[in-house]
Amino acid sequence: MLYYAYNKKVRVKKMINQNSTKEEVMEAVKHDGHALHYASEALREDRDVVMEAVRNIASALMEASEALREDRDFMIKVVRHNGYALLYASEEFRGDREVVMEAVRNRVSALMDASEALREDRDFMIEVVRQNGHALHYASEAFCGDRDVVMEAVKQNGSALEYASEELKLEMAKCWVKCMNCKGK
User: Fold this and answer.
1) I need a labelling partner for 103 at 20 to 30 A (CA). Which of 46, 116, 124, 136 fits?
2) Cα 124 to Cα 98: distance, rounded to the nearest angstrom
3) What residue ranges of the chain have pLDDT lower than 70?
4) Is residue 46 domain-shared with residue 33, that is, in the same domain?
5) pLDDT score recorded for residue 5
6) Contacts of 97 (CB under 8 A, 6+ apart)
7) Is 53:60 a contact under the CB 8 Å cutoff?
8) What is the rounded end-to-end Cα distance, in angstroms, of the chain?
9) What is the pLDDT of residue 12?
10) pLDDT tens, position by position, 85-115
11) Nearest to 84 by CA among 64, 108, 49
12) What is the pLDDT of residue 175?
């Protein structure tokens, strides 16, 4: 089967099939990561080719060889470059603290793609919001009402308070007013 990858900017058309060279496939996946589907199995096992495809579009990870998708070091590199790729990772990696943390560093909303067990892990959530306070937006309702989690998020980014529970927002507003009154004396 042939696959045509188009580069809209320079109007280049590349034909990809099982016999395409690494260079041809690399050129195609730069413009359309889905072209990986038509590459040979050997090239779907090639780290450079798969990484280039995933940089273009995260869903290209589904076309990578099983061996690559099961390689933890490779998955860490993949999500470091494209946090969306966590959505296409195995359940094992979606529950791996280091893999998820790398994905969240790249794209905070990748937290939604983490395993439920990891999203319910309080220590992990504190670690995440210390990296990016806006991760509170993707946290469970329980963590949005957890004073320690919210405080860590707000320390990292004050605007994360918007994702806190109404009860904590009110409590923090009262504290802020007290502090302002103390400064005025």
Assistant:
1) 46
2) 10
3) 1-14, 184-185
4) yes
5) 52
6) 118, 124, 127
7) yes
8) 78
9) 42
10) 999 999 999 999 999 999 999 999 999 999 9
11) 108
12) 80
Could you say which DSSP state residue 80 is in? H
Indicate whether 114 belongs to any domain: no
Q: Are residues 172 and 152 in the same domain?
A: yes
- C-beta of residue 83 within 8 angstroms of C-beta of residue 103: yes
What's the pTM value of the predicted model, to 2 decimals?
0.83
Find the Cα–Cα–Cα–Cα dihedral 169, 117, 123, 92, rounded to 10°. -130
108-117 contacts at long range (C-beta below 8 A, 24 or more positions apart)? 108/83, 108/132, 108/134, 108/135, 108/137, 108/138, 109/83, 109/138, 110/79, 110/83, 110/84, 110/86, 111/135, 111/138, 111/139, 112/138, 113/86, 113/87, 113/89, 114/86, 115/91
* Amino acid 14: pLDDT: 62
Domain-located, residue 56? yes
Residue 185 and residue 124 share a domain: yes
- Based on the fold, state whether residues 1 and 50 are members of the same structural domain: yes
Residue 85, domain extent: 70-107
User: For the chain, what's the residue count?
Assistant: 185
Residues 79, 42 share a domain: no
Instruction: Report pLDDT for 128.
Output: 97
